[in-house]
Amino acid sequence: MGSRSDWPTLRHAAETLDELGIAHESRVVSAHRTPKRLYDYATAAAGRGLRVIIAGAGGAAHLPGMTASMTTLPVLGVPVTSQALNGVDSLLSIVQMPAGIPVGTLAIGKAGAINAALLAASILALSDTALAQRLAEYREVQTGSVPETPEDG
Prior knowledge:
mainly alpha; 153 residues; three-stranded parallel beta sheet; 3 strands; globular; 46% helix
């Protein structure tokens, strides 16, 4: 995440990864305030065994794009709600990557963080049958929790 203030949003990604039994790490890496930390993190990520990066940021939201420019790992961008433009600025910043440097961009806020974790799980499940089963079970539970009528449950 670009700053500690992004944690209330990105924690939902971490919690979803925990629920699916996926090892992960959470770091504050600012594209603007800690560029060397960003460079070191992004360029070493694959070598440290990371397979997908979820990068969330608000405002100018350069973190996901800058991260993607320094690694060939899939980068999933989560726009964090900002005070100025309610996260629309973050969304546009992340989604408008130039051709050749993709960032998978999710929804603004909590839903985007949860979906980033689920998309990361789907990517990882391509080569992990146990995870694929856990993800299928997660979805079954989700489906079962939806009532058929407004009076149910």
